[in-house]
Amino acid sequence: MGTLRTRGERRLFLIDGPEPRLPAFFALPESIATSTGEPTNAIFGFASMLVKIVHRLRRLPDVVAWDAGTSGRTELFADYKAQRRSAPTCSSSSGRP
User: Which of 10, 24, 53, 62 is most enclosed, with most CB atoms within 10 A?
Assistant: First the structure.
């Protein structure tokens, strides 16, 4: 969707926090972890992506949004995302920076 801007108008810079979480998790080795073995590859990957975005756009995001719970879609439509494989259990703990 295109937006019209007038001179000097500022755009909202919003990042959907969960979106890069799984790609970051799968892109980096699980050996990126705390001293107790807790995987931190998703956090590291997300932070690295954020640094690249900030550097490229030369501004900080106004908002990074995270889900606060379920959307209720599964309750309304049982087959919602039925074709997708489940996220690995270790990504859930390291998925939210």
Answer: 24
Two structure tokens written together for 80: 């919602």
Q: Name the more confident of 59 and 1.
A: 59
Q: And the tokens for 27? A: 């892109």
Q: Which of 87, 90, 85 is nearest to 40 (CA)?
A: 90
Number of residues written out for the chain:
97
pTM: 0.60
Residue-level pLDDT at 17: 79
Residues 6+ apart with CB under 8 A from 54: 60, 61
What is the chain written as a DSSP string? ------TTPPPP-EEETTTTHHHHHHHS-TT-B-TT--B-HHHHHHHHHHHHHHHHHTS--SEEE---S--SHHHH-TTTTTTSPPPPHHHHHHS--
Over its C-alpha atoms, the chain yields an Rg (Å, rounded) of 17
